Amino acid sequence: MFKSRKRIITLLLLSAMLVFSSVFPVYAxxxxxxxxxxxxxxxxxxxxxxxWVFSTGSGLQVLYSTNGTTYNRSLPIYTSRPSWxxxxxxxxxGLDVWAPDIFYYxxxxxxxxxxxxxxxxxxxxxxxxxxxxSGGVWTDQGVVISSNDSTNYxxxxxxxxxxxxxxLYMVFGSWSSGIYITAISxxxxxxxxxxxxxxxxxxxxxxxxxxxxxxxxxxxxxxxIGVCCAGTDSTYKIAVGRSTNVLGPYYDKNGVDMKNGGASxxxxxxxxWVGPGGQDVSGTNVIARHAYSVAENGAxxxxxxxxxxxxxxxxxxx
Length: 318
Prior knowledge:
Order of helices and strands: HEEEEEEHEEEEEEEEEEEEEEEEE
EC number: 3.2.1.99
Number of helices: 2
CATH class: Mainly Beta
InterPro entries: GH43_arabinanases, Glyco_hydro_43, Glyco_hydro_43_endo_a_Ara-ase, Glyco_hydro_beta-prop_sf
Number of domains: 1
Distance between the termini: 44 Å
Catalytic activity: Endohydrolysis of (1->5)-alpha-arabinofuranosidic linkages in (1->5)-arabinans
Keywords: Glycosidase, Hydrolase, Signal
Helix content: under 10%
Oligomer: single chain
Largest sheet: 5 strands, mixed
GO molecular function: arabinan endo-1,5-alpha-L-arabinosidase activity
Structural class: mainly beta
Shape: globular
CATH topology: Tachylectin-2, Chain A
Low-confidence stretches: 1-27
Strand content: over 45%
Strand order of the largest sheet: 1-6-5-3-2
């Protein structure tokens, strides 16, 4: 009798735990990374069994991992400057490349990147392609879109996505000029028309990452708000809004249009990691970003987490 009663109580407790976890889901896991994880503005993709991370830096920096946790540094994409860089960004020197994005489409990996100088809208987004990341042979495809002091937008921080109807779009931009979206040709992988502003925020907004979640029926615009690149003094935060239309409008959790400053913060950092941002959402279940390590005096480090979605259709991770 006692054993039977104990078994019933155990079954009831297990049932209660299952109900609790379905109503209040546990937070997703942050991957335990090691090796060389020094990055800024990471772009993550998996080719076969190899995990690749592209990031801001000289020649466009590359990390790889065969298990997803231990990372090594590979050779940079560029060892010399394409001639068009100086044409579109005359004051750009050296091999400094910013905020890449990697997108696989039609049998090729398309690696978008930006060149610019701090505090200037004289910028350009470029494209290089390969059929095999591990093969290491990249072909520069020239300028994708450029900007100057007379354009509304700043041509940095590109991110490519495929909408529910199969069409391609690129989001890009930063700061006072805000975040813009433009249609992308499936043939040239470059813009086909005008760019439209979909988000702005005083105090800094950049690094957009746009994804469609077929389970919720929403497009989600992830952005970095605040100030980056100041080590542990950085104020970066990751925020999000969503829309039923790829062109917007995008609203935060309080119903505020992102064009009017709306943005729901989902990661503001913690005592160990300051200024999370430069995020890249891979599919709908992985998010990579950088944050500044308190333990390492503000060194920018790679963080990767599983991305979950709550019952209201909003993303979260721990």
